[in-house]
Amino acid sequence: MYLLLLLTLTLFPLVMWCQRTDGSCLISNMKVFKNNVVFTLPGLSRCTKHICRNGKIEVYEHACDFEGQCYLANSTFQLRCIVYKCMVQMMPLARRTQVALLENNCIDMFGQCHKPGARFPVHKDGITYGSCTCKTDLTGNRINVCKTICEIDGKVYAENQTFERDGKPCMKYVCDHGTARVIEAGCLFKNKCYPPGEVINNQCKQFKCVQKDNSGYLTFEIEYFQASCMDDKGVCRSPGEIFPYKQYKRCECGVKGMVISLSCLS
């Protein structure tokens, strides 16, 4: 079922013309069009083109004039996420050109189109809503119905409510206009949370909490940073440092990756 938006009639050209020996067309305003030349007639739609064929004026191409643009007959086109179709109906003395609405879709904050029932983020009145649904009202107009609650992992959180997600003990969120926004983030290491960028010392081995962007999705991971040697008193020694170790007077700390070695001389 189509919703008709624009209706125009393209009458057969009621102009005087005569057939000339060279096949050109002479119309009533004394303008001459050569044979097989395509043109528009004054007083008719600028989108309807005519052609002179062996001294006769014929319709060459039908199109719809919609919002200042011409669209060919039977073609579909999209404007602001709404899909239209240019339709032409033959009548006894005229051709009826009409623009029909095929799909009335919604547009999100990134300019992407969504069909009714789809969910997407919307920015309006200075606020970003993370969960909006495309719907149409009784008149066919498209509307965005946005939620101010968050539905995460099967649980519902109210606006401005803070919460944690299962399996992510170092992440804290707040429900912000339908979007779970991160307010605290970190890495879990031996049952303790560390913020991004913090270096963790563990038995002369150092690790770091690193934030990564995986295609727009932020993750926080523990990565090996650097290592050092531990002497017999529990003191960390840097790579290349020489120090006594147990019965040895001179030992040199060597580190390659995560492999730690001691080269000792008695």
From TrEMBL:
Keywords: Signal
Origin: domain of life: Eukaryota
UniProt-recorded name of the protein: Uncharacterized protein LOC106058897 isoform X2
Signal peptide: 1-18
